[in-house]
Design goal:
alpha+beta
């Protein structure tokens, strides 16, 4: 505001429009120039008024200080701007460097996994050749046994047509010579593959781990659930429970409380030394009343059982297969891809997987300790707890 007046003072004072006198004073309150007559006016009586030159010098000092501060501030901001530009350039270079590092490190992992994959494929091929050779050997052995039995049958048929004395003499010699053949069992070794651990697989699966609990409203009366709803075991005496529509009345089953309609999910079940169990998923709409087949399209499970002290697994796609005992099972569900897989957590190996199932509607975890038999080892199915770290990650995901 003072700038035009200061410029004017350099060439001469202005003239008051009202009194025609030179304006030599400046009123601080009204921020205007005054002449001698204006100075005596009542409205400026108590105002702070200074001679123009003195007031201008005073403000000039203040303005010069402000100007110096602004120039210093501008210089600081320019320096900060230069620093940001340098930081931006460095950040771009760091990003490129980190990208190259990530590509390099994952490249090493890819190469490592490819090498492991190649080793397992070669191992699988060798085991396949060995098993095929054994099967061919079994085939030849059984064929030879069949031929020997056919020859013996033919000889016995010939003896049947001989006179009694000759028949008796020949029969005794024939049976003595072929006693070993008659006692032979039709035994043969079934093909068997060793497990192939998949490096890093469980670490990946654990990123999808869910905190699964059991739904007491769905539990068969013979099933005893823990207070924390994390384990289930069979009880020979049924509990007195309401026969609600959600409860299984015949199938020894209980569902998880969680439902899945999208996304990827993983949970683990500790079966320990238990030899009879069934785990997997089923449609939320599965019939809860009456018997139903485990091969139903409404459920996809892995069933374990023992027979003659051997451990077997059953699934609807591959049927029954001999297996080493399994102590902890991992179940992975990818809803969008229609994929479910079962893993041996201890060996970090794939047991069985199903793809392109085309899931529709809500799915729920499925658990059954199964009806024990005389060969069974009793025990509980225990849902493994989610780690605190995974819980924090999931909480952050859900909040996001």
């Amino acid at each position: 505001m003072l700038r035009p007046h200061l410029l004017q003072s350099m060439v001469g004072l202005t003239t008051c429009d009202q009194h025609g006198e030179k304006e030599k004073f400046f009123c601080e309150e009204d921020q205007r120039l005054l002449c001698d007559s204006c100075l005596l006016a009542p409205e400026h009586k108590d105002h702070k008024v200074l001679p123009l030159e003195i007031d201008a010098d005073k403000h000039k000092v203040n303005l010069q200080g402000t100007l110096t501060f602004l120039q210093k501030k501008e210089e600081e901001l320019k320096m900060a701007l230069d620093a940001v530009k340098r930081e931006k350039t460095c950040f771009k270079e760091s990003t490129c460097s980190l990208k190259r590092l990530i590509i390099s490190e994952y490249g090493k992992m890819h190469q490592f996994l490819l090498e492991i994959e190649y080793q397992y494929i070669q191992k699988l091929k060798q085991e396949s050749r060995d098993n095929l050779a054994k099967l061919e050997e079994n085939k030849a052995k059984l064929s030879q046994q069949i031929q020997n039995l056919q020859r013996l049958s033919f000889k016995i048929e010939e003896n049947l047509d001989k006179p009694p004395l000759e028949m008796l003499q020949d029969t005794k010699g024939t049976l003595e010579r072929n006693e070993e053949l008659l006692l032979q069992e039709s035994e043969y070794a079934s093909p068997f593959f060793t497990t192939c651990p998949i490096r890093g697989l469980r670490e990946v699966l654990m990123s999808f781990q869910r905190d699964i609990t059991l739904d007491p409203e769905s539990a068969n009366p013979h099933l005893i659930l823990s207070e924390d709803l994390k384990s289930v075991q069979y009880g020979s005496v049924p509990q007195d429970l309401p026969d609600n529509k959600e409860r299984f009345d015949s199938a020894l089953a209980v569902l998880g409380a969680q439902t899945f309609t999208s996304g990827k999910h993983y949970w683990e079940v500790e079966v320990g030394e238990k030899t009879e169990w069934e785990v997997g998923i089923c449609k939320d709409s599965v019939s809860r009343k009456g018997e139903f087949s485990t091969s139903s399209e409404d459920i996809k499970t892995l069933v374990a059982f023992t027979s003659e002290k051997l451990f077997f697994l059953w699934n609807s796609e591959r049927g029954v297969s001999l297996s080493p005992p399994i102590h902890k099972v991992g179940i992975f569900l990818d809803y969008e891809k229609g994929h479910i897989a079962f893993y041996d957590v201890k060996d970090r190996s794939l047991i069985h997987s199903l793809s392109d199932m085309g899931f529709e509607g809500p799915l729920r975890p499925y658990f059954s300790p199964c009806l024990p038999n005389k060969e069974s080892i009793p025990g509980s199915l225990i849902i493994c707890p989610i780690s605190n770290h995974q819980r924090d990650v999931h909480d952050a995901d859900y909040k996001g």
